Each structure stands twice: as structure tokens, then as C-alpha cells.
Amino acid sequence: MTTDDSIYRRLQIQLDRYPIGFPATASGVEIAILKYFFSPLEAGIALCLSLRSIRASTVRKRLRKEFGVVFSYQETAAALDAMFMKGVIRRSDGAKEPRYGIAMLAIGMFEYHVDDLTPELVEMMHRYFDEAFGAEFFRSSLPQLRTSPHLKAILPEYIVDTYDNMKHFITQTKETLQVTNCVCKQGEALIGKPCRQTDDYEVCLLIGNTGYAARGRARTISKEEALAILDAAEQKGMVLQPGNSKKPDCLCICCGCCCG
Q1: Which residues pair with 206 in a beta bridge?
Q2: pLDDT higher than 50, residue 230
Q3: Which of 5, 129, 132, 137 could form a disulfide with 23 if both were Cys (CB 3.0 to 4.6 A apart)?
């Protein structure tokens, strides 16, 4: 496996093909971010993945074909699990065996590093956002998050569909509910810019999304606690941003100072 920057450039090019890309910059900050997340071997393993999750056995074959890396099935699965726990790839635990997929930068690798952020990473992310990633993130005509209005902000004559009524959704869901810290608020606090709207960072809700808990970065809560979190957010003027689907698996509770 090569130890120069070429493996990271290959990974950058692959990540840039996805719905929220990973564009190159003149400064090369995107390569610095990839080096922060991946060792050269891990970058090679990531190059064997795609958005469609696959088994460790498939990754093993691709590793040997593309890079001449000969791993046993157990070694491949262990490397993939370690990368999942590190927060640089996705894992879905199926009935027979796990499947693994590439993670985009955001929403993805950056968020997976909640509770494990450093000022170095946050500063690189700020720089990358300013140089290229901000325009890329907002370029898509189908954003990953959508704004859900607070009921009290709607005039009585307007009808709020239950699609945007997150309290109703939480009440009706049969999925496991969990809460994790807000990576945006954590990151800004690390560089001396704490949130001005709330001191409570444990506000991001997960609905049937168990990956954070598997990494030890979320805890299971009741519907009552989830509703209390929403009530508190409404009182503080926070903005609800559920995942952009009819059955979102996350609900970000955002502020204007940290989550821009």
C-alpha cells in the first residue's frame, strides 16, 4: 500500500462523485482532512466501498485485486469494524452478517466524530467549508435536511401537515429513540465559540438509527424525554431540521450561531 498522497487523492476523487461531493481545493485542506480520518491502509479499504453497503467478503476480494493486500475474512471484517467504530465508514447489521458502506463527509464522517472532536479537525472543517465544501453542501437541489416549523410560529389559518409535525411523528413512531450531542455545538465550543442559545448540547434525536449508540455516542430515551427535548427547543427558539424523508432517521435541533 502506497504511503504518499496518491491514495488520498484517489479517495477524494471517489468521494467527490457522491450526491454531496468532496471537491478539491488549491490549499489541499481536503487531503489533510482525509489524512486525519484515514491511515493509508484505511483509505485503500474505503476505496473498496461505495454508497451501497457490501459484505466483508466482497471488500476482501477488492482489496486483493486493487491493492494486492491479502487479508483473511476475519482480518477484513476486523479492519472494517475498527473503521466503523472510528467513525469513518457506515455499518448496517443484517440478520446474517454486517454490511459496510462509504460515508460522505457531511452528513457523515464529521457527525460520526461527535464526542471525539479536536480543535484541529474543527478548524480544518471551517477552512474546507469556506474554500469549497460549503458551496458543495448547499448545491444539491435535494438537501439532506429540511426545516420543520415550530407550531407556535404558524398563524392559525395555516395548516401544518403531519409531515412537518415532529411531535406527532415522535409520538407515533415504533422505532428506537436515542439522543446524542450536537456536533456543531461541540465543535464551536472547542474553538472558543460556545452556543449562545442553549447550554444543553445533548439535543440531536436519532430515530431507528443505532450507529451512534454502537459507537457509544448516543443513549436510548423514551418518547416522553424526546418530546421534552422538543418542547425545550421550541422555548429556546431552536430550529428543527429532520432528515429529508417521510420517515427521517435523525432530527437535528439547530441554532443560528453554531449550525450555519
Answers
A1: 178, 250
A2: yes
A3: 132
Q: How many CB atoms lie within 10 A of CB 48?
A: 22
Q: Which domain holds residue 78?
A: 6-124
Do the domain assignments include residue 134?
Answer: no
**pLDDT at residue 164 in the model:** 54
Q: Which tops the pLDDT comparison, 54 or 152?
A: 54
Does residue 100 sit in the same domain as residue 178?
Answer: no
C-alpha closest to that of 176 among 127, 128, 133, 211:
211
SS3 194: coil
Distance CA 102, CA 109 (A): 9
Evaluate whether 53 touches 90 at the Cβ level (below 8 Å): yes
Asked whether residue 132 is assigned to any structural domain, the reply reads no
pLDDT value, residue 145? 47
Q: Specify the DSSP element, H or E, that contains 101.
A: strand 98-102
First to last CA, the chain: 38
Rounded CA-CA distance 102/122 in Å is 21
The CATH number for 94's domain is 1.10.10.10
Domain count along the chain: 2
